[in-house]
Amino acid sequence: MTLDEAQRLASRLREEVGRAIIGQRQVVDEILTAFFAGGHCLLRGVPGLAKTLLIKTLAQAVHLKFNRIQFTPDLMPSDIIGTEVIEEDRATGHRNIRFIAGPVFANVILADEINRTPPKTQAALLEAMQEYQVTVNGVRYVLDRPLFVLATQNPIEQEGTYQLPEAQLDRFMFNVVIDYPTAAEEQRILAATTTDEDPAITPVATAADIEAARHLVRDLPAASNVIDYALRLVRATRPTGTADDRVPPAVRQWVKWGAGPRAGQALVLGAKSRALLDGRSVPAIEDVRAVALPVLRHRILVNFQAEADGMDADQIVGRLLEDVVGHS
What we know:
Elements: H1 3-20, H2 25-37, E1 41-44, H3 51-61, E2 66-70, H4 77-81, E3 82-88, E4 95-101, E5 108-112, H5 119-131, E6 133-136, E7 139-142, E8 148-153, H6 166-169, E9 174-177, H7 183-192, H8 207-219, H9 224-235, H10 249-254, E10 255-257, H11 261-277, H12 285-296, E11 301-302, H13 304-308, H14 313-323
Parallel strand pairs: 1-8, 1-9, 2-5, 5-8
Antiparallel strand pairs: 3-4, 6-7, 10-11
Helix pairs in contact: 1-3, 2-11, 8-11, 9-11, 11-12, 12-14
């Protein structure tokens, strides 16, 4: 696949998703950026903002297998990855063990309200995301590629939830925040969704096309100044950094733990993917800055002082982007 072909594919995907999703252009772009980079997304937003429709439409537009998993407090790991059953041949009396694959055996997975299930079940999904395989009774089963997991969290009601540990949050490339639509967009939503018309989504690519585009993203060269900027941005999130890291005062005052090396990888890959979606062969520092918020907001752990001062991770990332300047 060439750069022009990948860029045209991304444009067609945006167009097809836009048939079903009104507005939310930045959210769609961030999800497509992670999708082409081979990462997974954590999507945070209140109910009713078309999170399920968005990811289902993406799967239809790429002709991929889509599964939705509704996470509940009683969900077990076997409900996600699958289980083995014993079958008996009535004619011979011979018994066989057969593996029944769970919903994780798909290309696009919507993990709805992932924080409503216990850590053991959360870990089962995250292992599959990271290793692209599951293990049942010592037998490994390889998952199909591409594999794209979009997990949702409801930021309002936290009673009875199991928050993802920081180490597991780090497995998500992006943390995307979806907000309410504008008044004009909401008017279009009300007009379009209260009729019998159902937008037809046309598949514009295959799984092989997406895999080829993902390899192309990794093949894009990143200049040393882009790598250096991503490095300095990540190291500036750590309050225990050295003088050479030039940690901003806001980080030393309000951050308990900063981002790890995986954040730097996500910044560079996200910048490459954004450049490809824009039809450019080389990522720029502006691409790193554009993906900094979804990459870093869930990897920065604020302290009690930040909570007392009303500061959150998004505001701290904004301060970082002001203080850490890129070099040409």
